[in-house]
Prior knowledge:
The structure holds two protein chains of two kinds.
Chain A lengths: L3 H6 L5 H34 L4 E6 L7 E2 L2 H6 L4 E9 L13 E4 L1 H7 L3 E2 L2 H9 L3 E5 H7 L6 E5 L11 E12 L9 E4 H7 L6 E2 L1 E6 L5 H11 L7 E5 H9 L5 H29 L2 H10 L3 H32 L15 H28 L2 H7 L1
Parallel strand pairs in A: 4-9, 6-8
Antiparallel strand pairs in A: 1-11, 1-12, 2-10, 3-4, 3-11, 5-8, 6-9, 7-8
Chain B lengths: L3 E12 L2 E13 L4 E5 L6 H9 L6 E6 L2 E2 L5 H11 E4 L11 H6 L9 H14 L15 H13 L5 E5 L7 H17 L3 E5 L3 H4 L4 E6 L2 E7 L1
Parallel strand pairs in B: 3-8, 3-9, 6-7, 7-8
Antiparallel strand pairs in B: 1-2, 1-4, 4-5, 9-10
Helix pairs in contact in B: 4-5, 5-6
Amino acid sequence: MKLIPLILSNFKRHKLRTILTILSIIVAFILFAYLSAIRNAFRAGITVAGADRLITRNRVTLIQPLPKAYESQIEQIPGVSIVTKASWFGGIYQDKPQAFPQIAVDPDEFLQVYPEFILTADEKKAWDATKTGCIVGKKVAEKYGFKVGDKIPIKATFNTPKSGGSLWTFDVVGIYHGAKPETDETTMYFRHDYLEENRLRGEGLTGWYYLKIADPKKAEEIVRRVDERFANSPYETKTETEKAFMRGFAEQAGNIGAIVVFILTAVFFTILVVAANTMAQAVRERIGELGVLKAIGFTDGQMLGLILAESLLIALIGGAVGLALGASFVKKGDPTGGGLPAFLLPTTDFLMGVAFVILLGIITGLWPALQAMRLNAVDALRRE
Amino acid sequence: MSLVTMRGVSKLFHRGSEDIRVLDALDLDIQPGEFLALMGPSGSGKSTLLNLLAGLDQPTSGQIAIGGDRIEAMSRRQLANWRARHVGFVFQFYNLLPVLSAERNVELPLLLTNLSKAERRDHVATALKIVGLAHRAKHTPRTLSGGEQQRVGIARAIVTDPTLILADEPTGDLDRKTGDGILDLMQALNRDQKKTIVMVTHDPHAAARASRILYMVDGHVSNEMAA
Lengths: 384, 227
């Protein structure tokens, strides 16, 4: 503790250099927080995917439909507890095609398969009672100011209504929130029967099926049985675990995780070189002073500690400010306006950031600290 | 009883395959309260002798006892701790830390003691008062004259009340008048505070202030005289 003022005094030596080094560390950790949030957003579907959930879709592509009649046939396959259908609506809200996704589902079964979407009992009841009813995620509701009782007009892109035109109107009956921070809160769900009864085309068809299975260990066997059941039919299926489905979905944009890791590695390597150079220079230019400290009676261990503490302090100041700023930027929400629903900095990534800060301080200070420790006072004073 | 006893002290340096004997079987006694000046040409071994007395270097052979402590057998860590308690240094170029004020520079050796902050402040104030710089305590070295910087250096050397004050050309970077002021101060410390001082100097005028002068040539004491 007594040596802290001595450590701090060294920051006054080259203020500009110290400030620039700290600034570069701040930028690195803002990037770390932000890129971690992006990586997390792409992995969120995989993270929250239930081990007991499967998805059955058209084997050709997700866009191709499946017959509604498959529902009762899948139900009969041993190990399947619940089957429920879902269809992509693909509508436009306020001329914003990317505003939020809309999916038609059967409310009761859907909420059984996805218990992490939390609604109140009244909201559930209202959804059951209202054919035009929809529920929207908390984030969508906050962004567009939706509240229960509102009517949401959505322009159809391919689900043309029988009544003509392209406008569908939905009544907000509930605002759902996720059980976990990663749970998607950016989607609107509405009733499948409302879609079926009012669309011009697509009778008897649905988009895909969500399956809840009793034993996740039997997932592989159930996947095989479902796909075998519909093999060589006009609508062959592809069934996979929700995790695999989400991974495939996320990887459509490339291996984001690997790209993020690559960028962060480059950033940290650069910062490591910058900070290490600062520390090495800081020690090199005050060899004489370090010699004086040794002559006065500072031990080798104290010299090591002094320099390490200095580099740790630089890393801690930069890292703490960088992580705090990064976290606050992430908190402002998804920068794509809905493309990254789970855009948040997970605690594990934050803790990893703290570990990186400490590691950065130690690695950049270690070599100069060892030099200071091994310094021969006589040589150092002679060089002065 | 001598404060410093050196017996058969030799120091060899290696330069390539060549061995250079800087000190050769030196015997020396320094009495408590003595003011000793070491003189001699460059390479005569006086600075090496000073470094050995400070525990900054160790002899190739021989024994060095200071205040009853055999320092030639101590480890680096033991020597560092011993220096902190028993040695005060005065350097030719003052060697103050430029980022610290005068009082913080003087406080440095006290950071290695168990003294409280208040006690450290008292010791620093006393040391600065002794060297006549109490009014410049908050100033950084850059704003002090050479003479004032050396006074701060002396305050730093005496603040722990060390057994031995070692000065390496303390007036070497100062003009005659300012140097005289520093020598007056060192004499006063020796006379009034009973400090034992060993001073390396090339300047006979400075050496004349000591109570004893040793002339060194080729690692030996060639001549000795009382001032």
